[in-house]
Write a structure and sequence with these properties.
Blueprint (H helix, E strand, L loop, with lengths): L32 E5 L2 E4 H12 L8 H27 L6 H9 L5 H10 L4 H21 L8 H10 L5 E2 L3 E10 L16 H16 L4 H8 L3 H4 L4 E6 H4 L4 H8 L10 E3 L5 E11 L2 E2 L5 H29 L3 E3 H12 L2
Antiparallel strand pairs: 1-2, 1-9, 3-8, 4-5, 4-7, 6-7
Length: 347
């Protein structure tokens, strides 16, 4: 099957999928303080704004434990991304006004649609620009500190092929697909999901905007990495890997029928999805291949191996980088302390 699954949000305001902050929120009391990151104070109001956005449209009220868990996750996201911003500032990484404008101008909204979406999120245009700037800073940081340090040699590719040669013996025709998925299911918090849709109407609006970006010529992989809500594939540009022809025939009819009509390089219209998670998707046919042993001289084989090795190494470096940031930071999570204190008091 084609699987779907589940960064940034919050400063003093919450913008399109950014869970980040540069300056503190004024007029807060000490009792509202939830955490400190190298002296930067995270107040309850900052967490609650993101929390309220994530539960908007929910049909069921969260239990007390679920509320705590969600706030704790949001707080952890703010802490992690604040560490990124502080590191970016230390390295002198900035986002220029021109870069901010270029990112904004790529949005396929009319002026009225743009104003409506900002209003729904409780944002001003200046708020939105600030969050775009912060997102760009973090993107630059991760590219400088992680992506730029990953190098895949021809020897690496050769060794991988030799060790996994059986994986390239194709017993039936294969379809190489990528997709962009937006869920209409609320309460799926993740630091990696920008502007998480909370209901079907928001999900449809979001996938329509994504489709307009693709139609205007934006790169599918780039758009998928930024906007897809399937975080398991978004990091690799939405790639789903090789789908055997027999497996393709078992997926939902709308997706199957749309894919079978594609030529290599084309993508589908917006496709409604009901399982395993309801929402919408756009699927691109990256390639199609017949059965038999695939040779290493095949450029698509080399690229497949290169992408897989790069993704593995970037994830490994990212985990080490994140841990190093935390090891060298002064972090105090008052909210965690309060949760543990309350739990002890209930015994």
């Amino acid at each position: 099957m084609i699987h779907t699954s589940k960064s940034r949000r919050a400063a003093c305001v919450i913008a399109t999928g950014a869970l980040v902050a540069l300056t503190g929120c004024p007029n807060q009391t000490h009792t509202d303080l939830m955490a400190k990151v190298n002296g930067y104070k995270i107040y309850r109001s900052e967490v609650d704004k993101s929390y309220n956005r994530q539960i908007a449209g929910a049909t069921q009220k969260l239990t007390s434990e679920q509320e705590q868990a969600l706030r704790l996750q949001i707080l952890q996201q703010i802490i992690n991304l604040q560490l990124y911003l502080q590191k970016a500032e230390k390295l002198g990484i900035v986002a220029t006004d021109e870069e901010v404008e270029n990112r904004i101008n790529k949005a396929s909204f009319t002026k009225e649609e743009f104003a409506r979406r900002l209003g729904e999120m409780g944002l001003t245009e200046n708020d939105y620009r600030q969050e775009i700037r912060k997102n760009l800073m973090i993107d630059k940081l991760l590219n400088k500190e992680i992506a730029s340090k990953v190098s895949i040699s021809d020897a690496d590719i050769q060794n991988y092929y030799n060790e996994h040669k059986s994986q390239f013996n194709v017993v039936e025709p294969q379809y190489y697909l990528a997709h962009i998925f937006v869920s209409s299911k609320p309460n799926v918090p993740s630091a990696s999901i920008p502007n998480k849709a909370q209901n079907d109407a928001q999900a449809h609006d979001k996938i329509k905007t994504i489709y307009n970006r693709l139609e205007s010529g934006e790169d599918f992989a780039t758009v998928a990495s930024k906007y897809s809500e399937d975080i398991d594939t978004a990091r690799s540009g939405g790639e789903l890997g090789a789908i055997p022809e027999s497996q393709l025939k078992t997926i939902e009819a709308p997706t199957r029928d749309a894919v079978l009509k594609l030529k290599v390089g084309q993508f589908t219209d917006i496709i409604p999805v009901t399982t395993p998670v309801p929402g919408y998707r756009i699927v691109k046919l990256l390639g199609k291949e017949g059965s038999g042993q695939r040779d290493l001289n095949d450029p698509s084989v080399q690229q497949l191996i290169r992408n897989q090795l790069r993704n593995q190494r970037e994830q490994y470096l990212r985990a080490a980088y994140d841990e190093n940031l935390r090891d060298n930071a002064e972090i105090r999570n008052y909210y965690v302390e309060q949760i543990l204190k309350n739990a002890a008091g209930q015994k």
